[in-house]
Amino acid sequence: MSGDRISIERLLDIPEVQKVTSRINQELVERRAYCPPVCEVLKGTYTTLRADDQYRFSIHQEAQKRLPHIIGNRVQAIAREDDADEALKARYGKKRNIGIVFSGGPAPGGHNVIAGLYDAAKKANPGTTIYGFLSGPDGIIENEAIEITGDLVDEYRNLGGFTMIKTGRTKIDTTEKMALSKDTCQKLKLDALVIVGGDDSNTNAAFLSEEMIEDGIQVIGVPKTIDGDIQVRDADGRVLCAMSFGFHTAARAFAKEIGNLCTDSSSDVKYWHICKVMGRVASHLALEVALQTHSNLTLIGEDLADYTDTNRLKKAESEAEKDYTAFGMTLRKLSRMVCNAIVQRARAGKNYGVIVIPEGVLEFINEIQVFIIKLSTIIAEYNRYHDNDFHTDHPRLHDKVEYLRRLVRGIRQDNPFPIWNYRDDELFNDLPEFFQEGLLTERDSHGNFQFSQVETDKVIMELVRDYLKILLEKGTYKIGIPRMQYQKALQRDGLDPETFGPILFENYGSEDPCLLTHSTIYSYKTFAKALLTAGAVTAEAEIPKAVAAIYQKSVPKLKTQLHFYGYDGRGSDPTRFDCAYTYNLGLTVFSLVANGATGQMAAIKNLEKDFSDWEPMGVPIAPLMHLEERKGKLNLVLERTVVDITSPAFLITKAMREKWLAAQPGPDDYRRPGPIRFTGKSEEDRPITLVLNAIGNQKF
Question: What's this model's pTM, rounded to 2 decimal places?
Fold first, then answer.
């Protein structure tokens, strides 16, 4: 009875109730208490830096011109020093003020960069102060910072997110912002500033280092991005940094969810799950997810960009012609690839599956990339020459399209190469409205096209549906019926399978485990006609229910579920790999600061190998920079790394495609990656991509 229940006040006072409703759980307690392993060279009392001249870089002349003070920086290996002279002791143990800022999207492990820096700095001199700039670079510009204390660090050890000091996407890219940043650093009497971020953020680090070198303020960058597109190699291809931090955790988080969909798909056997994963410029996450889950089809943008239609080439060669359309990927060709996978599995009786699509796959399709470049330039030019921005002045899709049409109507004869021409206008208007709107979406703060805002998966799947209708009418797209299922169904109704089998199925006389209806049977009408023509039924008689049911089972119905994986993965608590990686990056940062480095990126070499082989170092940022189009202009930025389609990891994935497609009767080859397990011994120690590359690059 309700009168006998305990009051809510007493219920809330019960310790067990308080325990299970507390935000502090056992996993959190164990994470905070975990002590990541430390690289051998960082275990000593002191470290020194040793210039490693075996690495060389192809330096861009624009970088040489704009970053003269740091362009000559060399790779600096870190060496352990337990028996230091007085000069080293004094330099290393100096009382310092060090600022640190997160820039860009969160990535698992950022808090451990702070923890590693804090622990090393306080060990060298307890009087050193660490400042955390709030909400990203805005905190530097506006002098919004907090002192990072031991209690604050302990609260966030081994935890995901950038919650401790937050993050932001502001870029220090104007004279005014640079001056304000310098003023903040001088007011706080900073000895060093640490910028944790991606390619744009480390670009900022280089320019800030150049600007503040005469003020004696050191600037160190830290490679962060879940996309995995900060990978540092020298001019000879030797790897200095195999992966940015946060990648492993995000990939594992995505793989866990997509692995669950593989299980669901093969259980319910009626859905195709279309999984779009983050990765605007590169497909590293999609590649790692494929290796983690063995999804039936994974599109790798870099592979699509290199696509060659060999059948078209052979046909053209036989006709003594040249077919230039055989080179490069188009949306139409891409949809055909997806259709082919769906059709093959359907014919094997599997009208379900999982497809992984990288967020930025459209960037690798030439016809779309041309649109993106042209539209980005048009928007940037408009913003540059008007008091308001393009999207404010043209809020509706109709307004934007009309502006583009005015550009076409305004083409003059003395302008033979307009940026937007009649052909562009014609092709653009052939696209569905939701895709037009996606291509015209507002660019991000760096002028980049926001692929996450475009329903890439929807674009591809609409084309797929259209082509599958054609294949259905041709009798090519059909579901294979297991032979035993057919025989039992007819026998159960007292019918002879041998009577109807040859009429219905083109491969009935074979030993194929799955039966396929004749290509002439592509509708209920043609199905009924085939039975009537063969004399299996009369015009007056009803088609036997068992036979009609078998036909219905052979008719595919494409049911899809669309998923996007991005923000959930970047907010995940880090794997042990990322905990160790980022903590040692923090220790490396302090070693660089204590030894006077600036304009360097903290890095760890040999991430693809066992932890005992990891080598902390400083990598010069300026030599890694090149010119890239941003906001319609060429800008000097840190170069991003895309998937190497000659790498062992990709080649192995490519070799496994047929196996993972599993377009034959029998079990699928899905892999169960499981959740991120911080406790226990079953957690993998590094990304599969790195493992395969390490094995494949060995000299056997």
Answer: 0.92
Residue 107 CA to chain centroid, in angstroms?
12
Dihedral sign of CA atoms 622, 628, 630, 633 in order: positive
3-state secondary structure of 686: coil
Q: Which residues contact 150 (CB under 8 A, 6 or more apart)?
A: 118, 122
Distance CA 638, CA 279 (A): 17
CA 376 to chain centre: 22
Does 300 or 639 have the greater pLDDT score?
300
Distances, alpha carbon 350 to alpha carbons 298, 401, 422, in Å:
17, 42, 45
Mean pLDDT of 638-645: 94
> What's residue 459's pLDDT?
87
Question: Listing from the earlier edge strand, what are the strands of the sheet with 46-51?
Answer: 46-51, 76-81, 615-620, 600-605, 218-223, 192-197, 97-102, 129-133, 145-147
Nearest CA to 195 out of 129, 141, 117, 137 is that of: 137
pLDDT at position 680 is 67
Q: Are 649 and 692 in contact (CB under 8 A)?
A: yes
Q: How far is CA 695 from CA 302, 606, 643, 657, 691, in A?
A: 22, 12, 17, 20, 6
Comparing CA positions, the residue from 683, 671, 692, 650 lying closest to residue 287 is: 650
Known catalytic residues are: 227
d(CA 649, CA 508): 41
Can you say how many angstroms the Cα of residue 417 is from the centroid of all Cα atoms in its chain? 36
Res 1: pLDDT:
44
Rounded-to-10 torsion of CA 625, 627, 629, 635 = 80
Model confidence at 434, pLDDT cuts 50, 70, 90, reads confident
Question: Contact at 8 Å (CB) between 157 and 115?
Answer: yes
What pLDDT score was predicted for residue 623? 96
Return the ∠ at Cα 57 (arms to 51 and 60), rounded to 5°: 130
**CA–CA separation, 605 vs 377, rounded Å?**
38
Residues in the chain, overall count: 700
Angle at CA of residue 422, ends 420 and 425, nearest 5°? 70
How many Å apart are CA 596 and CA 92, to the nearest integer?
9
Q: Residue 424: which pLDDT band, with cuts at 50, 70 and 90?
A: confident
Position 427 confidence tier, pLDDT thresholds 50, 70, 90: confident
**CA 77/CA 65 separation, integer angstroms:** 26
Helix or strand holding residue 133 (H, E): strand 129-133
Q: What CA–CA distances, in Å, run from 482 to 349, 389, 474, 498?
A: 7, 60, 22, 15
